[in-house]
Amino acid sequence: MLNRKQKHILLKFFSLFSVVRGYNILIIVIAQYLTSIYILAHNKPLKQVVFDLNLFMIVLASAVTIAGGYIINNFYDSEKDLINRPIKSRLDRLVSQNTKLSFYFVLNFLAVIMASYVSFKAVIFFSIYIFGIWFYSHKLKKQPFIGNLTSAILTITPFFAIFMYYKNFEAVIFVHAMFLFLIISMRELTKDLENIKGDLVQDYKTIPIIYGEKASKLMLTILSALTLIPTYLLLFKYEVGHMYLYFYLSTLLLLGFLISIWRSKTKTHYLILHNTLKFIIVLGVFSILLIDITIVLHRI
């Protein structure tokens, strides 16, 4: 049995894990490696990719930068989260704001150190990334359109880091990125609909608050329609192996999303739709394995 002090330490650990959203970071790390193996460096031997120390440092720097980003985002959104996510907010508050900020600076310092192992260009890249996350959390997040656009760009930036490392400019990579960017943009807008109550209280100028729920739903409809462009290209113009199954399934899920969004009125409805888009993103990460299920055997 754990004593009182041990329980307190364990609770603080879970609180910090909740703040940095460790589960999201794990998915991004997996996604970066799968993207490297199956898409960006598909012509390289498997061992050369998996045991590439430079790639490992880029992935690690991305992970700690994102963790720091979640901390600073939590710092600025603490009051809003009390309204939108009261249970999670109570858990997050077990760690003091001073401790969070100290951890934030330590993580950013570690990110720069890790990037320095790769190159000076990597240091510049991650320094700009760190600043971009802070500036988004501090200023841009409260602005309609630019806040959503910046959030989507910052979300795919870790993949841009490994894209620049491998310098693979195949057209199919940009089509994959377009699909991911559109889904993330939809998720951000759906999250704004979900959090409209807290955003109103904290004077956030989000799209649903400025232009209304109907306009937001129309934008989501347009974004859903736009996903058909990269989906068509990936299904009929490029070779994606058995990953075609994912794109057919995601199209069906987006159709269901589209029907549901116009019927949704409550926070619970929007939460379900938000989680649907998260499911599409996470499923897409593991569906990368379907591009070539024999790749491991052929490239050892």
TrEMBL record:
Subcellular location field: Membrane
A Pfam short name: UbiA
KW Repressor (keyword) present: no
InterPro entries: Prenyltransferase_related (IPR050475), UbiA_prenyltransferase (IPR000537), UbiA_sf (IPR044878)
Keyword Transmembrane helix belongs to the record: yes
Membrane topology: Multi-pass membrane protein
Species annotation: Flavivirga amylovorans
Chief location: membrane
UniProt-recorded name of the protein: Geranylgeranylglycerol-phosphate geranylgeranyltransferase
Gene3D superfamilies: UbiA prenyltransferase
Membrane-spanning residues: 20-41, 53-72, 103-136, 145-165, 171-189, 218-238, 244-264, 276-297
Domain of life according to the entry: Bacteria
